[in-house]
Design brief:
It is a single chain. This protein has eight helices and two strands, in the order αβαααααααβ. The chain has 208 residues and is mainly α. Strands 1-2 form a two-stranded antiparallel ribbon. Helix 2 packs antiparallel against helix 3, helix 3 packs across helix 6 and helix 6 packs antiparallel against helix 7. The longest helix is centred in the C-terminal third of the chain and has 32 residues. It is elongated and about 60 Å long. It starts with a helix and ends in a 6-residue tail after the last strand.
Length: 208
């Protein structure tokens, strides 16, 4: 056997060795998840930084964001695999397993979607947005004017403002966490929410 043939055989055996890790792209986020994520983010930023409180534009943007969150919640019941609540709802067992995975900088199929800590953040953001929509509606409505507290506009404004101010904490925390997790797990989470794909490195198989 010629020397070049021997080199080719060695190279081919390394390339196809069962102990070699393989990296592949996995479709995680469908179009509904990505669209609602970025449009809700844009709406939140618009109402926090650019629209005037109480203006028609502020109201329209707010109701649009609430509508998008409702769509996302419904999609969490009937949507694709990684969009469903059953895939990422933060149970105590999932949180424990995720923290164990973090300790070794591991990314696996189990947490390809929202990991349990990210799920807590997402649920918190959705709850705040729904709360903003409800309080905003009650402030403009006269239906509950005779009901104590619900008809108290000053009280509703205070709750609405408190919820809005909580976004100044939750949104930056969400962004920082996404960047930190991207670095820790060597996975560009922001890019994946644009492309819908995440990179997965399969564990190398071993020969008996």
């Amino acid at each position: 056997m010629r020397q070049q043939d021997m080199i080719d055989v060695v190279d081919d055996s390394i390339l196809h060795s069962p102990s070699t890790s393989k990296t592949r792209q996995v479709k995680v986020w469908d179009i509904v998840v990505r669209f609602t994520h970025w449009t809700v983010a844009a709406g939140i930023m618009a109402n926090l930084l650019f629209t005037e409180d109480g203006s028609d534009l502020h109201t329209y943007v707010g109701y649009t964001v609430v509508g998008l969150v409702v769509i996302r919640l419904l999609w969490g019941l009937v949507g694709t695999r990684y969009a469903r609540f059953t895939n990422f709802f933060p149970t105590s067992t999932r949180i424990k397993n995720h923290i164990s995975a973090l300790s070794v900088q591991r990314v696996d199929e189990q947490h390809l979607g929202h990991n349990p800590l990210a799920a807590i953040m997402m649920l918190s953001l959705w709850a705040v947005i729904i709360g903003l929509g409800i309080t905003g509606y009650l402030m403009e409505s006269t239906i509950f004017s005779n009901i104590e507290l619900l008809g108290n506009k000053d009280f509703l404004e205070e709750v609405h403002e408190l919820l809005a101010n909580s976004l100044y904490l939750l949104v930056p925390l969400h962004i920082v966490a996404a960047i930190a997790m991207s670095y820790w797990q060597r996975q560009n989470l922001i890019k994946s929410m644009i492309t819908g794909k995440k990179r997965v490195t399969d564990k190398p198989s071993t020969m008996d």
